[in-house]
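Repro:
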Amino acid sequence: MERLVSARLPASGLLWMGGAAFFFSLMTLFIKLTGQRLPSQQIVLVRSAATLVYSYLAARWAGVSPWGRRRRLLVVRGLFGFGAMICFYLALTKLPLADATAIFFSNPVLAALFAAAFLGEQLGVREVGAALLSFGGICLIAQPTVLFGSGGGNLNLIYVGVTVLGAIFAAAGYATVRALRTSEHPTVVVFYLPLVATIGSLPTIELVDMPWPTPYEWLLLIGGVAVTGQIALVLLTEGLSRARTGRAMPVTYLQIVFAAVWGALFFGEVPDLLTVVGALMVVGGTLVVAGD
């Protein structure tokens, strides 16, 4: 019986990660829509402030103190997450969605490497192969100009660098979540990200021109970005606490598959053959990991 339960825990973790990928894809869609007029720093601030309230209430509802035990490491996790948000949100407003997402999603591979280097987690051939297969699929879906040449459009190298930096921050944040899994409740880990991000975003009020959102933009910010981001963050944290990083992170590549669906439904973007092949590679990589 114990062996059966232990076998099911990683699989359940992968299901949580799949749910996180779905809601993160929705959040990305809302960010892109909102960022057509509002600066990315304003989106980060509003999303962080709203999810801070959600996170505090979730921790209280779970019957735990939101402040946690290992507060220094929790703050570090918040800083990594804040850095990833700043970089990725900026990239979404400055780069084509497919390009920004493809570059940012190098973070699962980095997360597995961080976990192996600093947490002592095993990194097998299966995980590495699945990650590479999925990342190859992502490149086919996104078709970034850095790989496909001028046919994909010209990218601003500064924002490409910002996106890569965001991927590094995200990978470090995911590895930190794994380090906290034995001492902190998932709602506590979630709480520290909007806490640090809200405090860190406050100085931008004086540095960036922030127009007052329209009612439609408020709906996108609160009902869209904040709510879907909060749900995704809870699912991600729970998933990472149930499965090893090297196995769990490739599942987040499913976000790209969902993004292709949103593009077809909302923007009339019909996937081409390369996109279909890439989606199959992403799903294949996920199944390889889940089948361990």
